[in-house]
Design goal:
Elements lengths: L1 H12 L4 E5 L2 E4 H18 L7 E5 L4 H13 L2 E4 L6 H11 L3 E4 L4 H8 L5 E2 L23 E7 L7 E6 H14 L7 E4 L6 H5 L2 H5 L4 E4 L5 H10 L4 E4 L1 H8 L14 E4 L6 H8 L5 E6 L6 E4 L14 E2 L3 E6 L12 E7 L5 E2 L3 H7 E2 L2 E10 L5 E5 L5 E3 L2 E3 L1 H8 L5 E11 L3 E10 L7 H8 L11 E4 L13 H8 L2
Parallel strand pairs: 1-10, 3-4, 3-5, 5-6, 9-10, 9-11, 11-12, 12-13, 25-26
Antiparallel strand pairs: 1-2, 7-8, 8-18, 13-14, 14-15, 16-17, 17-20, 19-20, 20-21, 22-23, 24-25
Length: 492
């Protein structure tokens, strides 16, 4: 009940203080508490949701997502927000895997959700679960902190998304870690434009700041013009971005003239950050703190202290308060200063398991440590530097794109005989996916028709932006495609 207790505390002490601002909507801490209590009663009494049941949410950013999360914590249910950028077939798989007791969908996704839910899955709009007709209080079951609170899907290297299970204890640990890293307090104005279906949008700034009484300026989605204008007009204290968002704002003609003096610092996550973007903010006297982690780490694992932001440009920082980090070789032996190896993480903030996937869980959780698969090193000042993400994953505009998933969908195309997807470095997006293919005899394929084929299989952001038709993909003596060779060819 950590989240609810914190909201209740602020509702008692400063009931009319703004908890969330969303366009023209102002939600006080008292409003947020009352809505979450009504939603908990509705989930439990009207829709039959029990402790351990999944409540799936499909929609764009909205305060209702926080109401549902708080309601789930109150009754012991598992909040399962879905990526709002997927294709229908992807949603169908996720619903089959999660087996939710209730699907909540906003108006944007209502027709799609109606088709997905069919006759067997109850479907409701968000505002219906905290309407005035529901009582404000209900019994609170005893829930163990080891029980799951969040089920967040991340694309899998095996071609299928994996459900990351974060316990109530893990969510709280991440909140505390981020609170120690950043100076949240009542009255601060925290801007959130990242999607809340990501732990990056939900857990790095929003929950840590909200539970300490700050005001959240929540956006339905990112718009560079509106984001930049709001910073100046509302004296925003801090915000969190991914590199593609930073690039979009810096590309605006008003970037150099917009007043950003209210910003204490900026947090950047999701991928390796281009140094010029960091330096551009530093030129405006705004420290940039990189926060490194993954869905599996809650996400905060390593963070750059504000005081060191300008003299450690490009570093991921030091381990967050209650987290241990090691750089290891392929035999899981700890490596000395300066040597590159896999980043391993240990702490209460890491995942409990992958949902219904013991095999994948066993691969990454070993002796209480999580293997990120990312490559980095630690310097003599105990600051960590991320050299590369895992070998295959492509980070494009802050979104993870896993080649195996794209390849599996692409191989359903009748004219594709073999395929390998790799990332091409890109100044704006960080990386963009490139598909190299061998075609069946006498076949022809262009990028437009290939992307059109993928429309029914994958979200558009996962579509390769370039198609290379090759007579022969690079292969080793065993006939396996050598992606390292292909990656070098693509990035010449």
């Amino acid at each position: 009940m950590y989240l609810n207790r914190q909201i209740e505390k602020h509702a008692a002490q400063t009931p009319e203080a703004a908890a969330v601002l969303f366009g023209d909507v102002r939600i006080s801490f008292a409003d947020l508490q009352a809505s979450s209590e009504r939603a908990a009663v509705a989930l439990q009494d009207s829709f039959g949701v029990k402790a351990g049941d999944r409540v799936t949410y499909l929609g764009l950013n909205h305060p209702d997502m926080l109401v549902v999360l708080l309601a789930c914590e109150r009754i012991g249910a598992i909040f399962n927000p879905l990526n709002s950028r997927l294709a229908p077939a992807e949603y169908a798989y996720l619903l089959e895997d999660a087996e939710p007791s209730l699907l909540i969908a906003d108006q944007t996704f209502w027709d799609l959700a109606s088709d997905l839910a069919g006759e067997n899955l109850p479907l409701v709009k968000p505002d219906q679960i905290h309407a005035e007709l529901h009582d404000e209080a209900g019994p609170i079951p005893e829930i163990n902190d080891e029980e799951a609170l969040l089920l967040v899907y991340t694309s899998g290297t095996t071609g299928r998304p994996k459900g990351v299970v974060l316990s109530r204890k893990a969510v709280v640990a991440n909140i505390i870690n981020c609170q120690h890293l950043y100076n949240f307090e009542p009255g601060q104005r925290v801007q959130i434009t990242l999607p809340l279906f990501h732990v990056g949008g939900l857990c790095i700034l929003l929950l840590p700041a909200l539970t300490l009484g700050a005001t959240i300026y929540l956006h339905q989605k990112f718009d560079p013009v509106a984001t930049l204008a709001e910073i100046a007009e509302q004296d925003i204290t801090t915000s969190i971005f991914v590199p593609a968002q930073m690039a979009a704002m810096m590309g605006l003609p008003q970037w150099d003239t917009t007043d950003l003096s209210s910003m204490h610092y900026v947090v950047v996550g999701s991928s390796i950050i281009p140094l010029p973007q960091i330096q551009n903010f530093h030129a405006r006297d705004i420290p940039v703190s990189q926060l490194y982690g993954a869905t599996e780490t809650g996400p905060g694992a390593i963070g750059l202290e504000i005081a060191n932001a300008m003299n450690k440009e490009g570093s991921a920082g030091t381990p967050v308060k209650n987290c241990d980090i090691e750089v290891r070789d392929d035999q899981r032996r700890s490596l000395p200063v300066g040597e590159h190896g896999d980043i391993w993480v240990r702490g209460e903030n890491i995942l409990s398991r992958y949902w219904r996937n013991e095999g994948e869980t066993a691969k990454v959780l070993i002796d209480g440590w999580y293997n990120t698969g990312d490559i980095g090193y630690v310097d003599a000042d105990d600051h960590y530097w991320i050299v590369d993400r895992s070998k295959d994953v492509i980070i494009s505009g802050g979104e993870n794109i896993y080649p195996a998933e794209v390849e599996a969908a692409s191989l359903e195309h009748p004219e594709i005989a073999a395929i390998a997807v790799v990332g091409r470095q890109d100044a704006k997006w960080g990386e963009t996916p490139v598909a190299a293919v061998e075609l069946t005899p006498d076949a022809e394929l262009d990028l437009e028709s290939y992307q059109s084929f993928l429309n029914d299989h994958l979200a558009r952001y996962k579509h390769p932006k370039e198609l290379l038709v090759m007579a022969q993909l690079p292969r080793n003596g065993m006939g396996k495609i050598e992606k390292s060779v292909l990656r070098k060819q693509v990035n010449k």
